[in-house]
Amino acid sequence: MTVRRPILAPRAPxxxxxxxxxxxxxAAACSNGxxxxxxxxxxxxxxxxxxxxxxxxxxxxxxxxxxxxxxxPGISFEWSSSRTDIVTVDQNGLASALAVGTSAITxxxxxxxxxxxxxxxxxxxxxxxxxxxLEVGQHQRYDGDTCLxxxxxxxxxxxxxxxxxxxxxxxxxxxxxxxxxxxxxxxxTTAQTAREVGAQPIVGAFAVAPPSYSTRSLGFELSDRIxxxxxxxxxxxxxxxxxxxxxxxxxxxxxxLRVAPLLPTLSARAASPPSPTGPALADPPARxxxxxxxxxxxxxxxxxTPMTLxxxxxxxxIYQDDDSYASSPLSVTATTQMLDYYAAYVRDFIExxxxxxxxxxxxxxxxxxxxxxxxxxxxxxxxxxxxxTTAQCASSNEGEIMYFSSEVINDLDGSSPSYLALSVMAxxxxxxxxxxxxxxxxxxxxxxxxxxTAEISQTMSSRIAWEAVGGPAVGSELNGNDIIDWNRSNGxxxxxxxxxxxxxxxVVAQLSTQPNSLVTNxxxxxxxxxxxxxxxxxxxxxxxxxxxxxxPLADGPLFAEMTDDQTPAGTGALLAVTGxxxxxxxxxxxxxxxxxxxxxxxxxxFTTWDLNTAGAIFANPPEVAPPHRYPWPIxxxxxxxxxxxxxPSRPFSRGVYSCPPRLVGGAYRLASxxxxxxxxxxxxxLHDFVSGxxxxxxxxxxFGAGRGTLIVTRIN
Length: 716
Fold this sequence. Notes:
This protein is α+β, with helices and mostly antiparallel strands. The strands form eight sheets. Strands 11, 13, 15, 25, 28 and 30 form a six-stranded mixed beta sheet that branches. Strands 17-18-19-20-22-21 form a six-stranded mixed beta sheet. Helix 6 (332-354) crosses helix 9.
């Protein structure tokens, strides 16, 4: 298939006339105030030498010029076509192509020299155009190069077209430009048919006002929404952490797993469970010497750092290096909060979701060691080298350790606290189990799976904690009103719900921008894009749709099976727990997204998160407060009133769509139709179109998607 852009940047006819009006008004000062046809010396017609396919339309515009070349406003034109068997043109300049060939399109006014342009009509690239025939609630998958025909049907018929690239190749440079063209289709596609049936081409703007695109009312005003600036600050910390995790996970994979890990010893906790009247475990040593260098090359020699015990319980012992402890000790309030959070909201659910935490060193506790030397100022990390002997890896601590930034911990006790450390702790302890099992398995999960499931751990701990203090039940469908009401009644989000709201900010930043990607951070992505959020979104869907997450914690066994060392690595784990391939699950996810905000409930969908309303909780900044709601189709408008949401549904009029609204000076602006935006590996881009019930319908073609897929859903 030849990829060809029309010479004309497509516009709805009404929009073209509006632009023409601006040109005419702007030229009034150059016309000596005259609007008489007698002053017309010539007519100028644009666009210059356009070409279109049979069955499509192109909008011509004309300007009347005086002898000095100045534009004369307020002139009406007579339009004509030299070959009406090839092209017809109405008196607004809208030309409709009937057959292959050429025709001169001419505009005349008064006694001036007429203006004309030759329109070339080519054979349609859509010779095998596929009719979309869907009932409301149905969907269909097509190859990315399929030319589609959307029937006009009835006023308000609405289709959502997802352009996707379901690939597992984690290449951030694989970002082709992708764009979609929609054109209204005339009633007769050939001159012969037109003569036989006496049909006339359908003209007009096809611009019915799109209906409200969501069936879910927000129920809260802009004034009730949350200031997202603090969560964007957290996002910067998480972005640094994720950058380091990405590098570390890749280095662990590249280093290979040719040496056996340590075998777990009998857990001191299992041998002697905690007594209800007090701790049964022996107090941890007041001082430990630990390796704080995370180095997958496992150097021949390494130097231990003296560490001071700061705080502990029966689950975790927190150590800080001596030098930092002497100059800036960890806050006892902050470390106590971490220990209490772990004991109450992390310990028990971790085993349900990921299996038993290994106890390699036999002390019954996880060690949390502060390391201000974490690369990239990361918040925290787990190193799989610690699961080997020092003979196999000289810098191994031969135990289960989380490394944390002391600054992130002390933020819990700051003047403007961030509670990020609490849910990050749940993220990291999941890595202890899953990375240990990966060494037993002999293969790591794909990075997007490893980190996406760790994000599930992060949000689950937050939901459990939130429910415990009066928030929504874990198995319920969490919505934006839950968050807004909680924030209003408690004077803030608080430590328990913090991980939930932080995750929503991540998902907004990832999915509402282009290019997005499930498996990598593509070149050209927005500053806050992260495939960690995409991995959470994917696995939250898996847990809801296949794990019966509406029953509290019922999806735990599904994730535990994915983590088990006997389960295949990568997408083989997804197949094992769902019975469906990656491509099938990708289609399931897109359908769930498409019907999540409107239309019938899909057979497989989100059940524990209403992302439509939850994704609209932020008042600012624009990185987490886009102009409309999940799932963020790029065909949106941008309302000038901040209290009014944009509507992503566009009419069946001619248009080109590639880019979402752009951030310019802290505000959203509509992208130009000539802009082209890339699409990342396993990226998703949604477009909404609504019929005005006019004409035959609309032709839709996607360019640049390569081996992508189109998933069309019928919403209304």
